[in-house]
Amino acid sequence: MPLNYESIFIDLKTEYNDILHLKRIYKEGSDLQTLPTILLIHGSVENGRIFYSVQGKGFGSYLAENGFDVFVADLRGKGESKPKVNSKSTFGQTEYILEDLPTFANKIREIKGHFPNFWAAHSWGGVMIPPFMLRFPQIAEATKKMVFFGSKRRIRTKGIEKIVKIDFVWNFLGKVSGKTLGYLPTTKIGFGTDDESRGFITESNKWIKEDKWLCKDKFDYQSGFQNLKQKQRYFPPTLHIAAANDTILGNPNDVKLLMDEIDNSTDEFWLLSKSNQNLHDYDHNNMLTHKDAINDHFPKILEWLIN
């Protein structure tokens, strides 16, 4: 049966009339109320299309083919959400965590009668979801499992690529563009598919550099995760996936740093590499977009999710 792709638009009721976009993907003829639900969150300088295409490619489309009711988010200012990031964009990752993510989760509850059963994220999306789950424990308790692709909070890897992509583009150009333009036009410099707000650049840079994991409102996420462990409270089991050729944006060592920081005993780490019997040494994006992923690691991830 073919896949259906539906767009859902959500009014955030902000002063700039922000509208969030949610793409729903499912197999035609399905009994939607009985299908498990997953919400996919993209990373920085990209949008939800990292997970799907209208030709049926991508992780989101694969999950829909295999019996999931799939929802793919476009965070504020990204993809089909409106307006696009611009000089007037005052939001940052704090607003993504405290406003956008709960809005998506609540919209799915409105549609399905419950919060998403599963969550998955690429890159920085997987950095924002754990803090979000700490702030909204009711949603965390309703979540069975999560999968993060190339998600790292701190970047401790060194080298020329790090100097160019992180120190120069993300840090230096981000600061200069923020002061002069009010945002970072990454699309114009060929650094991604979507631009980033000044607030997001400022906040994410602090998380990348600093060992402390603090929100703009001073909420201490490190202490939050430590308290969870001490009290033996539930946190969704998470599969942290890294790729062998992802040298900077999701270096396996930095992915492990995030996993260690959350310190959840039910979490797992997978490295996609030829040495681990994968077809390729994947990189930051093609672990999701490579044509062979559908026959390589996607089936294994699906099995992990449903078992």
Please state how the strands of the largest beta sheet are arranged side by side: 1-2-4-3-5-6-9-10
Order of helices and strands: EEEHEHEHHEHEEHHEHEHH
The count of strands amounts to 10
**Outline:** globular
- What would you call the structural class? alpha/beta
Please, what is the average pLDDT? 96
Q: What is the tally of helical segments?
A: 10
Helix content: 25-40%
Biggest sheet character? 8 strands, mixed
In whole angstroms, the N-to-C terminal distance is 25 Å
Strand coverage percent:
15-25%
The rounded Rg comes to 18 Å
Poorly predicted sequence stretches spanning 5 or more consecutive residues: none
Molecular structure report:
The radius of gyration is 18 Å and the shape is globular. The chain contains 10 helices and 10 strands. Helix content is 36%, strand content 18%. The protein has an 8-stranded mixed sheet with strand order 1-2-4-3-5-6-9-10, with helices on both faces. The protein has helices at residues 59-65, 93-112, 125-135, 137-141, 160-180, 198-209, 221-230, 252-262, 286-289, 298-306, and strands spanning 3-11, 19-27, 37-41, 69-74, 118-122, 145-149, 183-184, 196-197, 238-243, 268-272. With 307 residues, it is an alpha/beta fold. The two termini are 25 Å apart. Strand 3 (37-41), helix 1 (59-65) and strand 4 form a beta-alpha-beta unit.
